[in-house]
Design a protein that fits this description.
The chain is built from two helices and 13 strands, in the order H-H-E-E-E-E-E-E-E-E-E-E-E-E-E. By secondary structure, the protein is mainly beta.
């Protein structure tokens, strides 16, 4: 139900309550519209598209906008929080010193990643739904694993910092049901980066 659907007597009475000064909700609507306009300016072009409807009118669609996080306990018993998606919340200080919430939106999503360290290996599990294994580019160096996908329908990118040095020559990867499973063998010798074939 829209505000205009309420009878005049109710709207006039509501505006005169001491809790909500006149114009309170109109100001709020204006602030929300301004926030959306500002957000649209910073969106990557491939996330904003226009579609024609059957009646001939045009609708602007935005997205997908994805944000999430996972929380687990690290080996030291402290919580580890991992963010994923293509929206990153941040805070920018205003001229008065108070933080102002902002959102950085990227063209590619950051997949949900889990890193498991075992005695001799490090296992990196990444959720990459909606792609084929041929679309995935996987590169490893001694200290990092880079996962990227660039297709018209899906874009993913994540550089994973590894907890221990690994041998890039020994990397094994498999992709099934939208989950990329990568196993890296630990090493304490420096190696150059290598492109990895996904099974």
């Amino acid at each position: 139900m829209a505000w205009e659907d309420f009878p005049d007597w109710f709207r006039h009475r509501w505006w005169r309550t001491p809790f909500f000064p006149a114009g309170f909700f109109e100001d709020m609507d204006q602030m929300i519209e301004e926030m959306f306009r500002e957000m649209q300016k910073s969106l990557p072009k491939d996330l904003v598209r226009e579609e024609k409807l059957l009646d001939g009118s045009t609708v602007r669609k935005i997205g997908p906008l994805v944000y999430g996080y996972s929380m687990s306990l690290g080996p030291d018993g402290k919580p580890v929080i991992r963010e994923f998606g293509n929206v990153k919340p941040s805070a920018r200080k205003t001229i008065f010193g108070a933080p102002r919430a902002e959102f950085e939106v990227k063209g590619e999503r950051e997949p949900l990643i889990d890193t498991l360290e075992e005695d001799d290996t490090i296992k990196v599990v990444a959720e990459l739904p909606g792609v084929e294994k041929e679309d995935i580019t996987l590169e490893a160096t001694e200290n990092s694993l880079t996962i990227s996908v660039d297709t018209p329908a899906r874009k993913y990118y994540k550089e994973v910092e590894l907890p221990s040095p690994v041998d890039p020559e020994s990397v094994k990867a498999s992709y099934r049901n939208g989950v990329l499973d990568t196993t890296l063998t630990k090493k304490h010798v420096k190696f150059r980066g290598k492109k990895i074939k996904i099974e």
